[in-house]
Design brief:
The complex is a heterodimer. Chain A has a single domain, classed as Up-down Bundle (3 helical TM bundles of succinate and fumarate reductases), CATH 1.20.1300.10. Helix content of chain A is about 85%, strand content about 0%. Chain A is built from 4 helices and no strands. The longest helix of chain A is centred in the last third of the chain and has 30 residues. Chain A is elongated. Chain A starts with 5 loop residues before the first helix and ends with a helix. Chain B is mostly helical. Chain B is about 70% helix and about 0% strand. In chain B, helix 1 crosses helix 2, helix 1 runs parallel beside helix 3 and helix 2 packs antiparallel against helix 3. Chain B has a domain of about 60 residues. Chain B starts with 16 loop residues before the first helix and ends with a helix. Chain B is built from 3 helices and no strands. The chains are: A mainly alpha, B mainly alpha.
């Protein structure tokens, strides 16, 4: 898990923060340009590879950002090693489940 | 345990505005992480064409979540700018901490009355 700890976690947290910031700016810009899309247009957009990829990138950035943040909080406040590992494991499993669920939603919607 | 002095009397520890903004960033981050399953559920329901309408009592958790998102965004931008050396002097940092707190509260209020 070296990828998700130490300085890499610090960098990952900031990189994903910038990605999420870009999504917020994009969403605000889209709302400023006109009314939100109708259901049919939204469904068609999310079924296209580009749309699904944009949603998948958002989910990945959110879940990775959440992992680094939750990990920081747990390392600061949960000190007994067994409990710490249990909480970290539960958080990692929950985030991985949400990632798989999102992938499943996107794939089944595109098919 | 070490013998160094520990001073954790919460009534006497001072919380400058930067500490409050920073603590809010943590609390809002944990709240947003807890809300992630609902975000995925909302994506699923929205793509299925199901209604995303909220029951009346959901206005309060929705406003709290709006606060969490807004405060986390504002305080996060503040931290990123300060890491880039922008606004990290004490007076500027105190001003931006107030701005993040007020901005988050304003958006929560707007979400509640909207």
């Amino acid at each position: 898990m070296r990828l998700f700890s130490g300085q890499r976690a610090f960098v990952l947290q900031r990189l994903t923060a910038l990605v999420l910031l870009a999504y917020v700016a994009g969403a605000l810009l889209r709302l400023a340009l006109g009314a939100p899309p109708e259901l049919a247009a939204w469904r068609a957009w999310a079924a296209r590879p580009a749309g699904a990829a944009l949603i998948a990138l958002l989910a990945a950035a959110l879940l990775l950002h959440a992992w680094v943040g939750l990990r920081d909080v747990v390392l600061d406040y949960v000190h007994p090693l067994a409990l710490r590992l249990a909480v970290l494991g539960a958080a990692a499993a929950a985030l991985a489940f949400l990632g798989l669920w999102t992938a499943l939603i996107l794939v089944s919607h595109a098919l | 345990m070490s013998a160094r002095p520990v001073f954790l009397d919460l009534r006497r520890i001072r919380f400058p505005v930067g500490a409050i903004a920073s603590m809010g960033h943590r609390i809002s981050g944990v709240a947003l992480a807890i809300a992630l399953p609902f975000a995925v559920l909302a994506l699923q329901r929205s793509l299925d064409g199901d209604s995303l309408a909220l029951a009346g009592w959901m206005r309060i958790p929705a406003a709290l979540l709006a606060w969490a998102a807004a405060h986390h965004l504002f305080a996060g931008i503040r931290h990123l700018l300060m890491e880039a050396g922008i606004g990290s002097s004490l007076p500027a940092a105190r001003r931006s901490a107030y701005a993040a707190l007020i901005g988050g509260a304003a958006i929560a209020l707007a979400a509640f009355v909207a």
